[in-house]
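Residues pack. Consider this:
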Amino acid sequence: MSRAFFSWSGGKDSMLALHRALAEGWQVEALLAMFDADGERSRSHAIPPQLMHAQADALGIPLVIGRAGWADYEAVFTAQLRDFAAQGLTHGLFGDIDLQPHRDWEEKVCAAAGLAAVLPLWQENRRALVDELLALGYRARVVCVDARFLDASFCGREFEARFVADLPASVDACGENGEFHTFVFDGPRFAQPVPHAVVKVHEIRQSEPALGHHFVAELR
């Protein structure tokens, strides 16, 4: 049985990839989640640590948090992978579907630590993956949307069939292009649902226009 860590976002694609890996017999010993430098929110998905810990507890897999700014993200991530390798882990699992630059980076950092990267969802049809996740009974909350693609009304909603049907035709059902991000809170691998509430939806405008304009759900 191969020992692995999972590069964990807390979102639906991570969950489906983890579900498949566990079903295939992988021994997943840690969920590695990257947070901002002060540890208040996860990178990209903006999930608070207490909810991600509750998520990991419900899944029965230890959560390992890395803290980094964008400048030292790769160095911090690679250092943690070397720690995993020193503990005897041999593989890293990732939830990416078809973005080649992401896979290239994951293979690079894993190789630097002496690990092999595995992507259980790679090159599969995006909409089919959404249908599989929902059919399995997983539930997720939309926690961040890119304002270039979706307005604030989409943020904070549950990711379910109605949400997918309401998406504009130009928006991918998986959000694989960064249109939206999710937080999984229940499903067949969860010992119990993760209680949470949407406190408020914030509009975030970055100082650098290239970093985008987002709506982010504050969860508690």
Summary: The helical segments are 12-23, 49-59, 73-86, 100-112, 126-136, 161-166. The beta strands are 3-7, 27-35, 63-67, 91-93, 116-118, 139-146, 158-159, 180-186, 198-205, 213-219. Residues 143 and 162 are 16 Å apart (CA to CA). The mean pLDDT is 94.
